[in-house]
Amino acid sequence: MRSTTTTTMAVKSKLVSLLFLIATLSSAFAASFSDSDSDSDLVNELVSLRSATESGVIHLDDHGISKFLTSASTPRPYSLLVFFDATQLHSKTELRLQELRREFGVVSASYLANNNGSEGTKLFFCEIEFSKSQSSFQLFGVNALPHIRLVSPFISNLRDESGQMDQSDYSRLAESMAEFVEQRTKLKVGPIQRPPFLSKSQIGVIVSLIVIATPFVIKRILRGETLLHDHRLWLAGAIFVYFFSVAGTMHNIIRKMPMFLQDRNDPNKLVFFYQGSGMQLGAEGFAVGFLYTVVGLLLAFVTNVLVRVKNLNAQRLVMLLALFISFWAVKKVVYLDNWKTGYGIHPYWPSSWR
Amino acid sequence: MAALESPQPAATTTAMRHAFGNVLSVLILVLIGVLAFSIRLFSVIKYESVIHEFDPYFNYRVTQFLSKNGIYEFWNWFDDRTWYPLGRVIGGTVYPGLTLTAGTIWWVLNSLNIPLSVETVCVFTAPVFSAFASWATYLLTKEVKGSGAGLAAAVLLAMVPSYISRSVAGSYDNEAVAIFALIFTFYLYIKTLNTGSLFYATLNALAYFYMVCSWGGYTFIINLIPMHVLLCIVTGRYSPRLYIAYAPLVVLGTLLAALVPVVGFNAVLTSEHFASFLVFIIIHVVALVYYIKGILTPKMFKVAVTLVVSIGMVVCFIVVAILVALVASSPTGGWSGRSLSLLDPTYASKYIPIIASVSEHQPPTWPSYFMDINVLAFLVPAGIIACFSPLSDSSSFVVLYIVMSVYFSGVMVRLMLVLAPAACIMSGIALSQAFDVFTGSIKYQLGGSSNSTDNAEDTNNAPKDDASAGKTDKGEEIVKERSSKKGKKKEREPADKPSVKSKAKKKALVLPLETSIVALLLLIMLGAFYVIHCVWAAAEAYSAPSIVLTSQSRDGLHVFDDFRESYAWLSHNTDVDDKVASWWDYGYQTTAMANRTVIVDNNTWNNTHIATVGTAMSSPEKAAWEIFNSLDVKYVLVVFGGLIGYPSDDINKFLWMVRIGGGVFPHIKEADYLRDGQYRIDSEATPTMLNCLMYKLSYYRFVETDGKGYDRVRRTEIGKKHFKLTHFEEVFTSHHWMVRIYKLKPARNRIRGRAKKLKSKTTSSGWSSKSEKKNPWV
Fold this sequence. Notes:
Chain A has helices at about 35-50, 60-70, 95-115, 135-140, 175-185, 200-225, 230-245, 250-255, 280-305, 310-340; strands at about 55-60, 80-85, 125-130, 145-150, 260, 270. Chain A has about 350 residues and is an alpha/beta fold. Chain A: Keywords: Endoplasmic reticulum, Membrane, Signal, Transmembrane, Transmembrane helix.
């Protein structure tokens, strides 16, 4: 079957949008008189604010917004990329706010690291927190998260949504965000620099620990008394890998499948089983993986452990239980498989029997 | 085929029973072979004796060439019909095992005056080798857990759906012979490990050589065996037998592997093979330690061990450092993309769309396991536990085999094929043990001396088995499966539990009678379900040749033979040197059936070339025409399923063309073809999508069929219904519109001013090729 895989037009689940109460826009736009001096003052202030943060993301509040955006006259000497955050929504994992915020920081840090000098003052990364600056959210007309907005130098009406980052622009996280920025601002973000998984000193410590431990480990191996000589450990490991694989966990990791979905028709109901054989949900995989594994474990228990039990009635009881569970598990998997794939597996009888 | 065990001289009855058991085993093995062969004939019976799918067409073409021109011509064959204008050196880039095997079979049959066509030999190679594979499984499992488990495993493997999917008659692909080679290599390794015989070690290297010739999956062997050796060493199981099993394999095997042109120096230069060399060094260090331990007193040894270990460590560190330096010097760390995506499963989807796009490289979901190994998925854990009680060198190997293969199968659905033999072995062991315990309990409690019961069972068995041979398929399999379990039990008792003490112990280990009977019945039901599933899978799911399609509807059977119709059209109506462009899926078929030169084919060795075709398909008509014209293409072939509802057509594969094209030529952006992240071709589709060549060639004149342009695959009306082609003209559309062939119109005469106008038009429609990386063909 070596051929290109086909794409199905599955409808992607949309992000849950959150409605904010939109009050009337009462704040008036303060007229501002600007000259190059105040421009450079603002830039200097932004730079100093930026240097105070770790990744270069400036935390703005209502006051900051009015100072750097509404009261600064267009064209401003800088663009702002604003990340709209809400701490109270961090618990909603499907919005991925924290992950996106982290990636936003990565882009900001990469931009800073790759652009020294005058280029570095043309774009600033900012964030606004909902609970602290609700009026700014109204100002921008933001009523759904996640929301990332680029405010270019020429935009005077903050409700202008042309600078909004689409879902596809942050789907590939920092890389696609950087592409978006490069497209819109014509500034180079440069290669994304993610913080290394382990810092250099950590690696050094680990390597030295390994080097120190090696002689002891070898000594124990030669004596034959390590954990590795414990059969039960290997057995448990083997069974676990088996469970892990037949549950389709690799699929869930590669495709980043959630554990369950929300029913589109009834938001209170959760969908644990996905119909259609090309996809599966996390909980579904683990459930079936468990059913796959439990039958073999029970069989092994009966043939290896239960035969040694002396009490005949206990044997009988446990065995009946084991048989019942196994039968139920197989039946359940067959049922689920038929339901999920829609195959009608049927025997072939001789035609004279019909 | 069955290696017979030497009869024990204890008593004549025992010897008789033993001999009888051996005869029965051979008979059962023959039946298993027949079963393995015949279950794969559904494709011939339901369709016809035809080569299947994509890759087999290439193998068939190579075999034809081999049988016509001989082996030396084959080694030097430069194929100019494919990858135009680059061509391909077939002899140096193909795994020759399958081709040489089928070529040899054809040659032997012909010299015996059996005039079979090359195609017939090719069609039936896979079923024949699956019979061999089940016999090899018997041998392997017998080495691990006795012949009873061996027979059970063999019968399971004979009909495991995963293997059937790659070895039905007509599926003439590398895996057909490679799975046999894989199991046989493992068998010889275990055999060497159990006997310590250099003879088997040599055979093992030869079997490995055959495997290297047959399939790229040989890297699985050359990594699994070193891992097992390392495991044995680490858990203190080193023995001279281990050394004999491993050292000759590495030396001879690597030398032999380097003889295969497609592997060549890769056998010593790529990271896939480094594990074996590292373990080779380690095993020598360990062997030295054991040797010194043998010749020194314990006290002296303690002094020596410090010295040896430190020297050994230094050597190891140096070698590791060299390896690390070598690996670090190559950009991918010396690993090929496919291997890397096994270690880091998210690698391919991130970086190599050409690997991620292939349907057999997708990660499987749980129904895939149920489909491909069915109830074996339930039995494997029991088999693993049975292998741990007690743990031997050979049983630890099969445990390692199942663990590695089940993990890899979780990453790539294609590797389910490697998992299948392991699952069969494990399930065979589990079933055998379970039947052993349950029937033992029943026999013990039904009373009487064990000897008389056994004799009674023997006589019961024989007629049952004879009768089953003549019966029809299904009943036969169930009975045979059951009887094979019994046959095994008889053999196991003398082999595994010879001492009186263990027999007495066994008598004490019984389960209640009635629950044992229930358990036995349930196990037999499980086996019956397996048989039903396998027969169904062989008949319905895996027998379709995909070159001829059928569909069952109320008014009878419909046959869609559009592919062969169009390839025949190409071969009859076009010039022999014309170039045909299509997506790479159809390259092998076009060269084999139409005998026309193609631009790309299923041997996806040149990503840029494929990306060029992908770019052309994703470009507007004029740009596409220029790309194709620069490649001397005369005809463009697209596969379209919208009329009859054939889902694996080019429109459904189109996103991959965009992705692969965009990976090399960045002016193609996937986002331009998606509306809000969704791929659609209806009125909501993006203008880029509606104007690209693939859309136009697929849906040209489509509205004339039903007046609305309703696409049955996408279940929607198409977005742009009435349009004309400017640079292409339709020359052929097959009966059910599945294949559409277009001819490139000749270039127009230059008109002043016109070129300029066109240019400005294209740039305004978002076609900004100037600022981006330039397409070399434009």
